[in-house]
Description:
The chain is mostly beta strands. The protein has 2 helices and 21 strands. The strands form 6 sheets. A 5-stranded mixed sheet has the order 9-15-14-11-12, with no helix packed on it.
Amino acid sequence: MHPRKPKLWLMFAALMTFTSAVADAENGQGIISGVVRFVGAVPSIPTIRPQADFDVCGSETRRAQSLSLGASQTVGEAIVYLAGYPQDNPGNGTNSAVILDQRNCEFVPRIQIARSGAPLILRNSDAVLHVVRIDSMSGTNGQRTLLKVATPYAGFEKMYQLANFREPTLLQITSRNGHDWMAAYVAVLPHPWAALTDQNGRFTLRNVPAGTYKIYAWHEVLGTLTRDVKLNGSHVATVDFEFAGKK
């Protein structure tokens, strides 16, 4: 037994992370990092019981929303992103395809981030009809339905284009044929400065140009918070978010 080894390993991992961040900053790449937390009484999550398609969906109640809290009530699967980014510097990054599957009567993954112009691959792995609706929940034009399509069988797959999103836009994906607990969200951004918090509520935005920004944290249960952040050239900034529940 070596009881001190795990502690030494954690210290080494933390040192490597810090060293990497400093190296990036010294190379003129601004970094914004932080933690998203929740304080107060944890809200109750509504549940829905399936009324049909029991052979695929089962009969047990399903949660209509998702809230994943870690140690010290850190918030996982929150989307953190910049607004007011430099229009003449959209940053690097590829428009990798976004895959949204329907598996065991759930959307998988539930939360993800995409670049404007990326292809969205809608897939059905269930041997049951799912009717999918995609709504734009934000943006200058407000809420509007972008797509409603039937995915009728296991193995169904179709590609759509996430085009013409010139500002950060949240898409909500829902089921429209009785699977009312099914929901997913895709944040579509015209730049690469967005991240999904890990199970410890941590996020990191890299290669951020110097400037003053609004930075947002969004969660499907907790809502939206905003902060101001300023990067002066090669700089590392820390921005923490704290959602408050009922006390």
